[in-house]
Task: structure prediction
Amino acid sequence: MAELLRITPKDNVAVALNAIEQGAVLAVDGLTVTAAEEIPAGHKIALTAIAKGENVVKYGFPIGHAKEDIAAGRHIHVHNLHTNLSGELEYTWKPTWPANQTAEPATFMGYPRRDGRVGVRNELWILPTVGCVNDIAKALEKEGQKLLGGGVETVYAFPHPYGCSQMGDDQENTRTILADLATHPNVGGVLVLGLGCENSSAAIVEEHMGDYDKSRVRFLICQQVEDEFAEAMKLLTELADNMRHEKRVPCPASKLVIGLKCGGSDGFSGITANPVIGGFSDLLVAQGGTTILTEVPEMFGAETILMDRCETEELFGKTVKLINDFKRYFEEHHQTIYENPSPGNKAGGISTLEDKALGCTQKSGFAPVKDVLAYGEKVHTPGLNLLSAPGNDLVAATALASSGAQIVLFSTGRGTPFACPVPTVKISTNTPLAERKHGWIDFNAGQLLTHGKSLPELSQLLMDYVLAVAGGEKVCSERNGFHDLAIFKTGVTL
Result:
């Protein structure tokens, strides 16, 4: 196995595939370099001398500039590398994208819905409109397990702290996300559980739901009944009885909407898992399906790659707004735009936001950008979509589910157990993580480096696995009973 990986011929750094000892003589792409110090796995080594102020290049793009003169063989990381990023920018559209591709139609076993969408699960959900009824919702989830069977696959409650004491966009975000989830295709039945005096009442959430399938939704206002628990169980039983007869049928892969997310990234994320996900995205788009890329702050530094793949100049303008609006959000809160890589990211070898972004955006593959979505907006255009949401794992993954993703693909180099409201597939960037945390990891993209698998081969294997999950195979987080909901908050709490 090679010790170094130079991602493109333009790069003046290489990535250590294993920990490298000081003094080791290494060869890559016809170059020979001696390690001047220990280089941890996933971290960068200088292939040539890099002068102070000169750009450090990885993925074929600058990931920052040298803070000092760096000799060949030195470890390049946060101590000697600084971001090039600053504030809002002006952009020019330079359209570059491959021709649309097609593929032999694939299918999965799903649940067709009245609105034309397809569920990959048939679950019974309890959605509190306000945090005050969270404990009731959790108690109902526990009692509701006796309703499982037949078409009722799972009973989940989704507590959250919002729905009251919010203003402006925050209140609207809560209403939109709850309405989106109440009408999600993975839901066979949903109980919207209100208190009665909150700002985001059940009636207001219903208004936000638009034209929905009323046979699948029930509402309960706890203050209006004597025994809210007994009344809720009656409604849940009614919904479960309606779902009991429903069965999976063959559905085209073009009905799949898959969210793309990464978290706990490391130096291998942009080399293994994210390119594998990108290959999957291209395969699904070729089927006529849909993928959604989000976590806008983690696009900073690689945004022009996405902008140039926008199919129209109008979409280019929407992408520019997507990026600059989020930069303005940081500035309005007096925060620096580029302070993104977490301690775990840095420990894994990621040094700057550009370094992270160039790896992150690999999840989008090479397909053209077909649409740009606001936070909470439901997807309506097949193909690759960009979605406005922050980088936070729980908030961004919930936003993907809210937009209609039936499954979220989540690459990680450090590992994480969480799950959003839909099946959350954990894809490891490295084999040691997959072997150590087999109760968390569903798919090992580290095989690209350790098992001799090719990128197209692993992308197809991931496609096959996603079709199996869409057909009912449970992922680790589902087997563990994990499910979370997090709503984007930007303003004050009353």
